[in-house]
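Q: Can I see a sequence and its folded structure?
A: Here is a first one.
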Amino acid sequence: MTQEPWTGPLLPSAGPRSGAAPAHGEASDASEPQALRTLIGRISLDLAVYFARHPPVRVVLLWLCFVVALSELYAHALNALFDYRQTPATVTLVTATVTVLVSTPLMTFAMINLRRLNRLRERRKLGEARFRDGIDSMADGFIIADADERVLLWNRAFVRLFPRLAPRLAPGMPLAEIAAILAEEYASSLSPAARARRAQHLVESYHRLDTPSEEAFGGRCIMAVHSRTSEGGTVSIYRDVTKRHQREAELAAAKADAEQASRAKSNFLAKMSHELRTPLNAVIGYSEILLEDAQAEGRFGMTADLTRINLAGQQLLSLVSNVLDLSKIETGRMEVDAVPIDLDGFLAEIAAIARPLAERNGNRFALAAVAGNGVMTGDAAKLRQVLSNLLSNAAKFTQGGSIELAVTRERDAAGEWIGFAVSDTGIGIGADNLARLFGDFSQADASISAKYGGTGLGLVLSQRLCWLMGGEIAAESEPGRGSCFTLRLPAAGIATQGDPALAEPLTSI
């Protein structure tokens, strides 16, 4: 449908304009008083506005009547001045002369204002064309209604969004009628009462200002936002969000599929880990029995091979256990106990585990903890597992250096915290590799795996166990100078019953 041209106000209403600049053709005499120039400017603008709002023929006739009447008044005044003693020819000459003298400045003034009127009309047309081009170039549907809720203007995008409404759309149509047409055209399958309720709902939406709402029209989802103009009218913006909802649905489905695949993978790993642990335990157990028998019978040539078998089984069992624990965390089946832990006795156990690991590569181990550390609440087994992982890594990547475990207790606004810091003087880690240090099956450098071995599961498992216990683990390192891994746990501890949400950080500490 071809739209009607915009029927807004042609020119701004006349008002005081002190010091208005004279239009083209008007004399500007600097010696005139300011008040006179202001008065002339006001009269000129008022006349231009008057011309703009009335037909040109009517304006010309009014000017001619005004000129003739003024000329007659001047002629009668001159005749009265001379006591009507002039001859008819003289009277005619005086009338003609007065008419010319009076009409010339008046017609000049009229021509000046007519030229101003033409310029204003051209500016108006240019402004309307630019405004029309601007709203027609919008991708969103656009419609304006006046204070009486009657349509003034719409753009092409609005017609494209509602093609069934377009043939019946016309300037001056009430918004309520548009709502009724939309309900009739796009909800034809509903009963008359349901369509009436739908139309009333659309009418009410025009009064919910600056609040986006979404409605279904012909299988599409349209979002509408309504705002008020300074004159009390309504500006409505319509946007087709069907594709956005389709993309969101596709992303949600893809996410659900990925989560399902991840759960399936974790379940598979958990089952396989259980299946692998049984024969591994048998291998380790029989190797220990054979090792004891060989030592007892003096067959020392077999002890080295049996020791290697036992150590390989222990390493493989540790790897399987890590995979099982990680899968439990991902599937939300990992439970955390909250029981009292005597830190002095617990740290003595950790030192007994760490010292042989450190001495294996010629390192010195030190425990920096004051006596009487008190009691904390937590899961001793998982805390031991995390600290063992950190101390094992420190011992593996340090040759002839020192390894230290420092324990601190501190309090802040969130409560009391226990800090465990494992530091070493080993090879260190570059800043660019720290970001991926806690990734699954990831190590700081690919060459590390070839030289030192390992799967990259220890740190990610330690991090997630810390999250489950309500704490956090952080790393600081510098190549060639060593590393420091700091673990902070709440002294009060938390207990979980396999909630998957607790596999993420609880708070930033």
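Q: Show me another, different protein.
A: A second, unrelated one:
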Amino acid sequence: MMVHLYRLFGKFSLMLMICFCTASAGHAVVLNDDYFAASGGDPTDAITVAATLDAGYSAARAESFTETYLAVGSISGCTATWIGNDEGTGNAYFLTAAHCIETGTEAFSLTMSFTDWNGRVILAGTGTGYVPPERVNIPAGFGGASTDIAIIELPGQAEILDTSENSIQRPLLYDGSSELGIEVTFAGYGSWGVGSMGSDGGLFPTIGPRRAAGHNIINRLIEMDHALGYTMDAPGTGDAIPLESAGAPGDSGSAWWQEQDGLSTIVGTTCCGTGNSYGTVSYATRVSNYIDWIRSIYSVAQLHSEAGHGINADINHDGLVSGDGTGPWATDDVTAFIAEWRRISYPNGPNPADLNQSGLVNLSDWWYLARAIHDAGGGYPEFPAHLLVPEPGTNLLAVLLLLGVVAWGIRGNEGIRGSTLDT
């Protein structure tokens, strides 16, 4: 079976985290009642939600530990996302919300630690925090939502490992303008709850970090189009999707992930909202409008528009970059990629499918191959889902079947303009 990456990670993220490690609280994802119930929870009232919390959040929790979101971690009460290292400066860089670290100036010293998805402190020390000029001197038409983005620079090279103890790849930052009407996924730590009641800071899982992933659809731009927003719709109303979720107070800084051209990209950083129960709106600062500023600090930030271009993705060396996984190895680069999946690349015998030369054939290499096939005129191939999806019976698969999720469309732009409330 083959599916587009947005169905695999935006909707069909089926890999489960077997062991949860401890981590501090501080962020939030609120689920719609039907999603909570389909996962095994009982959203009848506050008592039943608390009693069935582990089951109700099992699928959302498992999704937050899939490969795409392993760059997401915690920093002193907020969420941050590792966006890469710079060997030239010797430092690592993390994307978060301005209000998590700001002091009133564009650049300032801070002492900070970043804890990864597995509860490991990856880096800690005195570094530098940055916020854009628009945050310090807010232009007319801007506000809290449109300027709430920050970068943390810490000394050292961050090495975040996946579940197989391999280094994860840098995420892509979106630098286009097509976010509206497309689903986003966000992962964070902290207060949980259901849409009919909102978040409850007193709810904690029995074991492990309070970390979960949620979904929604971007349906508005505000504040000079520098902020993105979505609405928390009740099941069966408005434009609700089966995995409809919302951020809540404390979710600040978490990345909004969205598929663009077959690639998983970061399009926003969670900043604020009007609440987290049904009918409320959550906002994120729009990353694409701050790319130049980000690159002025971290010059090698990886951009969506640059991913895969110029890379020789002719894995089978037949002189063409093409395929969809249905042809033979000799003529189908996707088939050749599948054959090399998760295999190591050695200096004295490089793996032809290790397109980014990371030492391992993984999801990042697929991004490059998909882009290269598209650039060669073949369109974006569908991801071979069997490479990542475990056997049927996992929690999230059961939830998706119960909710009747096979595929769904995207919601259109409501064309709403307005202001936000900082949390």
